[in-house]
Every structure is written in structure tokens, then in C-alpha cells.
Amino acid sequence: MAGLFKKTIPYEFNDPSLVQTKAYVGGQWVSAASGKTFAVLDPEDDQEVCQVADLGQDDVRAAIESAQRAFESYSKTPHRERRWLMRRWSDLPKANREDLAALCTLELAKPFTESLGTVQYAIDFLDWFEGAVERTVGDTIPAFRGNNRVLTIRQPQGVVAAVTPWNSPLAMITRKAGAAIAAGNTVVCKPAPETPLCALALARLFEKAGGPHGVFNVIPCSPESTPAVGQELCHNPYIRHLSFTGSTPVGKYLNTECAKNIKKTSLELGGNAPFIVFEDADLEQAARGLITSKFRSSGQTCVCANRVLVHSSILDKFALILRQCVDDTFVYGSVWDRKVNFGPLYSGKGVDKVRLHIQDAISKGAQVLNDDAFANGVGPNFIKPTIIKVASGSENMKFTNDETFGPLAFLVPFETEEEAIRAANNTDVGLASYFYTENISRLWRVAEALKAGMVGARVGLVSAAEMPFGGIRESGLGREGGMEALEEFLDIKSITIGI
Ligand SMILES: NC(=O)c1ccc[n+]([C@@H]2O[C@H](COP(=O)([O-])OP(=O)(O)OC[C@H]3O[C@@H](n4cnc5c(N)ncnc54)[C@H](O)[C@@H]3O)[C@@H](O)[C@H]2O)c1
Ligand SMILES: O=CCCC(=O)O
């Protein structure tokens, strides 16, 4: 990789062709017409890894046109043929797990072992949609009157724009592109500028799987080129559906733009997940669940717990158990060391936000219960898992109304179940919610009362390919994963036949 990478990395690729720095359009690897490139950084040390093609609006228009041409034939392929394509595409990441994990570790500084887990998560979506392709069936409906026969068929929509975030650079793409392609659409995917290498590797595997030209296209672009590219994705008439995962403000903007031409949108946006520990919970189990929910990906997932509500009678005991659990669980060091299971944040921007949230809480009376979050020596963007007790005044602290997206666990006391539910629901968003109780009546009551698209009752992880994933309120529109995901990418047509 010497010629491609500008820094030395402690990993040898088994298949160097997975490292691509050009865009994948119409089955070809292409540079930007302008010749422009942009830098991908390694967040472990902020050094440049390589330069990647920086596509502009005209390049993207050409990619969309190529996807539209491909749609004309691909949308007519039999379900069985699409199913085998999905199978071939899904088998290749299985054979190249370590290389994909290495790319994820390189551009996101995710510990290698954790990256292997995200590769599996990405594969799960391809597997799931492969299995689901042949179940996209229609209905026959008895006519109300007359002698008509009414039936429905489900048809692919056209070219889908998939705009994805940096924090899960493989699975957020297979979750969208897997469903869209299985359903017979073609895809133009714009990955986050921080993590284009993972997206391009998925394109290379699609190519190796014999994917028809133009069915899956990956168009990397820099932050500077993104607004114009976004405009093209929102306004090009061939785009029939824009599927976005990212922050709520950007989702609102893209949704507004798409509405001007009545384009369908699916939006997977930000969260602010409550995690409630009731007084009757198994505290060890709850602490382990919180470790998973809060500290997975160093706290950088949309479903990470953001506000930990703990019954006041057990708060100090729970904090002690949690602290012990953190000490027992995490190993720090180079992200390439397979024993290491906790890594840095994706960039200095993420560190700044975490610093703001912790300083704000401390200035308003919160107390850090474990080590200094920033005393580390593991690189510029590293922050330790940190537990913070907020005895009172949490409603005026920044973390209450804004996802921290970092490894801070704010423990906030409550007195009654009603108070906990009120606090949990007191937010504009509603993606994931978690709670721990040993009381079955309370389990049902609270699961039904929480305003969120996904509830984890006695679990700290809800994400899975077979499950409809998504939020309510300002956390988004639509569902990804499960059979519901295919529905998102299919139009229902009713046909009435006069007999
Ligand atoms: N609900 C979910 O499933 C889910 C999953 C992962 C992340 N997220 C959310 O994503 C956020 C973190 O990701 P992020 O910082 O990459 O979000 P972001 O909104 O800044 O960026 C997401 C994507 O949108 C692109 N983008 C930004 N401005 C654009 C524009 N004007 N036109 C077109 N594309 C544009 C970015 O380049 C990137 O590819 C968090 O809020 C997190 O909660 C949600
Ligand atoms: O960031 C959110 C996506 C990660 C997940 O699907 O669990």
C-alpha cells in the first residue's frame, strides 16, 4: 500500500484492491472531472492517510444518469436473480472481514476488534435482505361491489440517493443499499467525507460479486463540495428517494429540499436516549447494559444512552458498580492492538463537544466520579469513559437537550416511575430508550409509555438487521432493517381488473 497511503500502518491487506480512492460510477473507477481530491485523516493521530476523489455536482449528475440507465434493466430482473446477487455480495465481506475491519480502524480509529463486530453487523444486513427479496409479494383484495378483481404489486422506485454518516461507515451503507438494491432499485451513495474508504471497499466487493454496472455507485466528496452535491441529489429528477442517516439539522434541510419536488425521503436522525435504572433492577445487569449502550463506539452512535436516570435510593450503589464495570471492561492503547476495546473519537470536533458538555455540567455542580476524562496519552482525540453524578439541575445542562456523542455517562436521580418517564420523554427526538426493572408489570407499562421508535427493556443493545430500526418525532421518518426496510424502497401499485 506504500504508494497509496501517506502513513505507515501496522496491517498488510490480504486483497489490496479493496483500497480504492477513486469514485465508483457506472461500473468504472473514476476521478473527479475537476481532478480535485480531498484528504482522509486517521483520527488516532490526525495524520493524513490518503487522498480520495472529490466529486462535484456535474460528476454526480453523471452518476445519477448512469444509475437511471441501469435501473431500466435492473428493475426488471427476476427476484431470484437479485437474490443471488445479494448472496454473492454478502459472501465477499465474509471472506474479507479483516481487510474491511482494517479500513474501518484506519479512517475511524475504531479498535480493530470492535471493527470486526461492525463488519459482521454490515454483513447481517446483506444477509437479511438477501433472504427478504423473495418475500416482497402483493395482495388480492375482494372487491366491495361489481365484478372487479383488485390486486396489488410492489415495484422498485428508481434511483435512490443514500447519504451516510461517518460513525458506522459499513453498516449504514449496507442497511440502505442492501434494502434498495434487493428491492430492485439502483443506488448513488454519498459517504461521509471522514470515511469514504469503507464505502469504496463495499463498491469493490459489489464489482467483484458481478454487480451490474450502474446499480451501486459511490460518490465521495469533500465537505466543501457537499452542499452542491446535496442540491443535485435533492433536485435531480431521476432521484426518486433520498435516504439519509445523520444529524437532525442536516436531515431537516434535505427533507425540505426534497419536498419541493415531492421526493420520498427516509430519515434516520439524531437521538437523545434515556436509560432508566429502576430501584428493582438487577444492578450488575443494568451496569453491563449501560456499558454496551453508552460506551459502544466510544459513545458515538445515535442509539447510545445520553441521559442515565437512576432511582435516588440506588444511585450511589449503581455508580460504584458501574465504575468497577468500566475498570474491568476497557483496555486502552493502539487501536490496532486486538486486546484494545475502546478507541478515540472521530475528530477534534467530537472532542470539543464532549469537553463543552463536561465543563458545562461541572460548572453547574455535577461531579466526576472516576478518572480525569482527558488525562490519557493515547492520542489527540482520546477521551476515557467517564461517569458523572448530577445531583440536581440537570434540566439546565447541555447534555439534557443535545446528544453528547461521546463517552460521558451522566447519572441523574429520580424519585418515581412517573417522574422518570416524564424526564425520559422530555425531548424533541425519540430514537432509542432503555430501562432496567425486574417487575413484569412495570416492564410492559414503561415500554408502552416511552416515546421512542425502539425500546430496550433489560438490554443495552437494540440494533439488529432483522428489526425495524428508526425513530419518531425529530429522530426521523421510516424504518431500516426488518421487512419494513424493503417496503420503504417499493411503491405499491393497485390494479383493478374488470372481469
Ligand atoms: N438514526 C440513525 O440511524 C443514525 C445512525 C448514525 C448516525 N446518526 C446521527 O448522525 C449524526 C452524526 O453523523 P454526522 O456528523 O456524519 O452527521 P451529518 O448530518 O453532519 O452528516 C451526515 C451525512 O450528511 C452529509 N451532509 C451534510 N450536509 C449535507 C448537505 N448539505 N447535503 C448533502 N449531504 C450533506 C455528510 O457529508 C454526511 O455524509 C448524529 O446526530 C447521529 O445521531 C443517526
Ligand atoms: O449510529 C447509529 C447506528 C448504529 C446502530 O445501528 O446501532
From TrEMBL:
Pathway: Amino-acid degradation; 4-aminobutanoate degradation. Coiled coil: none annotated. CDD domains: ALDH_F5_SSADH_GabD. Transmembrane segments: none annotated. It comes from Thyridium curvatum. This is Aldehyde dehydrogenase domain-containing protein. GO terms for molecular function: succinate-semialdehyde dehydrogenase (NAD+) activity. InterPro entries: Ald_DH/histidinol_DH, Ald_DH_C, Ald_DH_CS_CYS, Ald_DH_CS_GLU, Ald_DH_N, Aldehyde_DH_dom, Aldehyde_DH_Superfamily. One of its GO terms (biological process) is gamma-aminobutyric acid catabolic process. Pfam families: Aldedh. Residues 29-495 form the Aldehyde dehydrogenase domain. The active site is at residue 268. The keyword Oxidoreductase applies. Belongs to the aldehyde dehydrogenase family. Keywords: Oxidoreductase.
